[in-house]
Amino acid sequence: MLRKGEVIRSYPDAALGLNMGPQPQAIFLEKRDGVTVSEDYGKGFLENQLCVEDFVKIQQVFESQDPRQAIYLPREEFIQKMTETVGWGTKEEFGELFDKVDVARDGFVDWNKLTSFILLSLYERDERAKATVVPQWKDLEFLPGKHKDTIQKVVFLKSSSRYLTISKEGLLGVWGENLKLQEAFPITSDAAKLKHLWVTSLVSLENVNKIAVSFTSKEICFYDLLSKEEFPCQYKLQGLKGTPICMDYWYDPLDPKESVLSFGDITGKVQVIAFTAAVISLFERPAHACDDEEATMTIDWADLLSGCHKCCHILQHTFHRGDWVRQVTYNASLDAFISSTTSSTNTVVLAWREKSKKLLKMTSFNIAQGIHAFDYHSRLNLIATAGINNKVCLWNPYVVSKPVGVLWGHSASVIAVQFFAERKQLFSFSRDKVLRLWDIQHQLSIQRIACSFPKSQDFRCLFHFDEGHGRLFISFNNQLALLAMKNETSKRVKSHAKGVTCVLYHSLLKQVISSDVGSTVSFWMIETGQKIKQFSGCHGNAEISTMALDANETRLLTGSTDGTVKVWDFNGYCHHTLNVGQDGVVDILQILVLKKSILVVGWERAVTVFRPQNFNQFSIQSEEWKGGIHHQDDILCAAFLPPQTLATGSYDGEIVLWNSSTENAHHVLHPDYQRQLTSKLDPAAQKLNAKGSCSVHCMAEQATLAARNFEIDTEGNNAVMKLCFLEARKTNAATGGANLVSCGASGYVRFWDTFKKELLAEFLAHAGVGSIVMSTDKQNQCLATGDSDGWLKIWNIEDYCSNSTGNKITQSPPLLRSFQPHEDRISSLQMCESGDHLLIISSSADCSVCVTGLCDAPALTFGQASHWDIENYFSFPTRDANLIESKSQEERMKINPLFSKEESCSDSTQVSLPTEESKADSTHISSEEINFSLKYKNRNIYKKKAHKPCYREIIQKSASTFRSLCLSTLKELPEVNQPAFLLDPHKYFKEEPEEDEHRIPELPLLSETLKAVFDEKILFPKEILDHERQDKQLCQEANGDMKIKRKKKQL
């Protein structure tokens, strides 16, 4: 049952269907997956016109002084009180609402009945909107790859947000989340053996970070994804009776030890390996195996059948009677294995697991002419089959006699089907290269997608839909095509035409600077949202991956995937081009501008450095970083703490601390270990050349081994994506608090003490979304984090890890706000101050740049038609303002005595309070958010006041900054006797008698003594003077010729 006040909070999506104002004639818009749909159904009903304020008023009617006693209203009393409380709507409409809520005809309704009905109606509207949404698609794109034979499988690795493709010849391609090929290599190093075998299938074992590959040699090999080598083979399963040609893997997310690997072969067998301790080990080590843990362990199929391995058991059946098994999968909701063939008998077989989990019960469907593929939708409980007879059939797994639905429309055999699970739709692709999207409820084709597919007649097609990213992959032999969904329709506000990659804030001009993948840079006014200028084609057609401002904010630096960093002024003129020294595409992730150097990182283990004192030409080449290479993997980010502390984070989770002046590294931080580095310019190491080089080599090997062991233990989710120094915490050296924050690919945020070289705290900010980004304000009072689903969270870190407790903290700081301003991955975050408000600026791959505050006001999007007033828009409500302000002042006095003492001297009348219009929104903002906003605003007001501190305040300031020093008043000095020469100056300083001075005779005037005019030419030889005369004549002749030519051109 719902409690009072939970109508919105218990159902987050319900807020999407509610009006934010009391206008009953508004049109209701629901946003789902970037598509805005006008919901005409039921918009005239009263329950669909109630806004949030109306529900708050209705809730007050049902409130009782005794929380344990509920209030019940009969029909007439309900109509009367609702009409008076809401203030609009007729009695007939409220009477109809009462009849809908009172389904049981009890004659009365209470708060629980009303909220249950509202939530149910909103859920039905939501489901109806999803079913009617037709996705929009971008142009078909062929991804450049290195496959030379048919692509057999495409899989997505959630842990690392990467795609894997494998082709028949054994070439494995690794693709980034941006669908750029990172590397490609043969899955086995035995080149001679590759000529005699083909790869048939590939599956990802997500819970153990492995992949399984099947070969025509009747083998299945298991490769480790966490190894530093190129996917070494860990297990080799051999001795199979038939060649496996299809595989599927499933694991229990609640118990990752339980997993199932199923595969079908060319003899008609469906075989299953059920693992019971997959996280510990897939197979037991045989007695005859060697002791080398990195060596490939050979597993014989006969040993598995005999039960020699206690950590797994085998299930199998031969119900397909010798036909090739084209597809196999295990579904946990059915607890059954589904397999298919192209035969018309036993086309689809369901092998149900008995209670003992070791026996199978068979049922089958007979489909005329057979099928090519199938898919199962667990919520609809339907199996869709791609028929060779041009039909797509829908089957109930428990009804084998006939399909529950047939989808007609293809004129050629259907070769692939896949459900769009969230929208309850179905994709189908036929041999004549026609792609259709079906509405399952109405069994109608709602979209026919026409694309310029290859014209070849003989092709093998692979069909894979990544629903999480809205990407549809279709392979044609060795070509991989991508059909990506558009994230929004034209009604959604766009800041850029393409995905936004980076955002900056210019504090002097009060402008927001944003860049996109189309090499465009835009400038926006933060106060109004107006675009003031735009630079197009900054790097040609290459993507701008990151940006930075110099220390004076007079130059803009843009980094691109073309391997260059360009230095611009704000008029669009490029002053310098910095070449990183790489041929081809590189991924520049961050530009860090220091006082005497510019650092660029992102694509290799070394730091690329440019020194501005050498900027005497347009094209600048990189210089050598004196500190050398200390990372074991690619550097992804960097941060700087004045005066000379530099931190760099890498893909393997290591954070290296450097001295920016000497460019030497001195420590390595990792969630599992910390170690000290030997300086590259160590005098002892220079004396011992051979021994020193050997020690460095051994140290590198130990670092590699330590990093590798840790990745195996923690599944390799410690990649450092962003680093931020907490510069406002200047006293943490004495208190032992955190001064460095890092966020990683697993959604964790970690706080470090770089003085004591230890990890103080870590907490999970975003679960199950991959990599996140973050930013903090100048006062380091709050932290903003954004994830790949478009969610933004704001945390209060003012007192978080301010002191060292000795134990690692795992509890998260107070969460101020959590919302979703974007519909796709948040690419960059910036926090700034505008007036008295703290603002968070976010950019996203959904082509938008948004700005929001600490209050619950909706985010503003740059590029929207109407401009805004940022000061008035993000004003917080004034509900119980005096009480809240007094509480916030008490909290400030507890947290920081310095501010409490100084703020007590300030004039309280200068604190600007919000207007009365904002009181209506006070119910949606927690007291913690309001207190934090008031505290932040009061601190900014204090900083702007011209306050002259007294002597006691100066002493208190000094004590707060240098709290380890003991200050006291100065003792009075004893009187000093004046020296004798001051008491009797006449005695020591007598005046001498005046003497007659000899007058110096005056010199005659120059005009009187000058006999002739001086000519400076007599100082030079005659040859030089003649040469000078000839040069002047030539110059005059050349100038005359130029003037004649100009006059001729004008004529």
TrEMBL record:
- The yes or no answer to whether the keyword Repeat is present is yes
InterPro entries in the cross-refs: EF-hand-dom_pair, EF_hand_dom, WD-EF-hand_domain, WD40/YVTN_repeat-like_dom_sf, WD40_PAC1, WD40_repeat_CS, WD40_repeat_dom_sf, WD40_rpt
Q: Which Pfam families match?
A: WD40
UniProt keywords, alphabetically = Repeat, WD repeat
Q: Which Gene3D superfamilies match?
A: YVTN repeat-like/Quinoprotein amine dehydrogenase
Cite the EF-hand domain residue spans from the record: 89-124
Transmembrane spans: none
Tell me where the WD repeats sit in this chain.
407-448, 544-571, 631-668
The protein's name: WD repeat-containing protein 49
Q: What is the lineage of its organism?
A: Eukaryota, Metazoa, Chordata, Craniata, Vertebrata
